[in-house]
Amino acid sequence: MNLYDEELPLEPEAERRAGYRERSLRFGPMIGAKKIGMTIYHLEVGLRIGPDHTEIGNEEWLIVLEGEPTVRTPDGEQRLVPGDVAVFSEGPEGAHSVSGPGRVVMMSTKIDPSASEYPDSNKIGIWPPNKLFRLDDAVDYFDGEA
Known about the structure:
globular, 146 residues, mainly beta, five-stranded antiparallel beta sheet
């Protein structure tokens, strides 16, 4: 497959969120990948791939194909250009979000289970089972145990 030639389908209406991506293609499975996930995103000006987050258990890479997207990290915001590569390590130092304009590829290790923490909304996501929880809802270790 060619990263520049692939058509990126418009996300179904039910999956679209104001301010976030509208066109993407998860293609790791299409090329037989089992341990690395890859997705191409097309981002219009101001659209983001997703909320600011930290990976727990996986590492992500960003490769800029076209445009000049902006990356937000704990060090601030930085505009990138085609050919730039960024790595977002596991843990708080790898916190990030990406906004357009641009066509980018995100790659990630696929170690399950994993988690993502969302500092702006005080949530954590666990993958699998693909569920999100508010950190404020934490319970005692023995809560509900016999």
